[in-house]
Amino acid sequence: MAYFTQDYLKFFMELAANNNKDWFNANKKRYELSVKEPFEAFVSDVIAAATKVDKQFDIPVKDAIFRIYKDVRFSKDKAPYKMHMSAVVSPGGRKEGMDIPGMYLQLGAEDFRFYSGLYMPDKDMLQRVREYIVGHSDELNEILKDKKFVRTFGELHGETNKVLPKELKVAAEKQPLIYNKQFYFFATYTPETIVKDGLVELVMDNFAVSGPLREYLTKASMKSMM
Predict the structure, then answer these.
(1) Per-residue pLDDT tens for 48-80?
(2) How far apart, in whole angstroms, are the C-alpha atoms of residue 19 and residue 49?
(3) 57: containing domain
(4) Would 1 be classed as within a structural domain?
(5) Is 53 a member of any domain?
(6) Can you give the CATH number for the domain in which 64 is found?
(7) Is the model's pTM score more than 0.85?
(8) Which of 38, 63, 135, 213 could form a disulfide with 93 if both were Cys (CB 3.0 to 4.6 A apart)?
């Protein structure tokens, strides 16, 4: 089934040229019908599908979805609305979701994106992940070389540190990913993908392909806690 009509894409295209409260309020009903309600239905079905694979993903829809309203308090860009809808489908939801690799879904007029991995690990988690990679580097390399992973996601991304703790430097010469302070990957699709049938199936296909790396990063991030 298709969750979204062309008006979903059209709404965000028009919002790009009219990102202000007056325009949004004049189009509030349209936002509810063409954007918010179908997005909630879509995320609900993604959660249901993911829960069949792993019961940890059984979270309330409201805990997964981000608001369209931007927090502009510390931003130079004072436009009040985001140019997409997004959600984190993960055991921790949008508040803690990237501590356990799940899915971040972003749907806008420019593209549809599926993200997973560890985006903002704290200092202690980052140390655990790096130590785990030291002892399981070959396993990580095999996962990243998998044909389905390469075809779907390409490679592992993330900002890096220039300096490492002394005990990690030798291992990092053989495994440069130890320098990473983020470990995420993503797939990008055309905006027309959003209005087609089979969107949940596409998400779950990506979820399946991401499985080995999500499991690896989950073990790595929780190593000293297990």
Answers:
(1) 999 999 999 999 999 999 999 998 787 778 899
(2) 34
(3) 6-225
(4) no
(5) yes
(6) 3.30.930
(7) yes
(8) 63
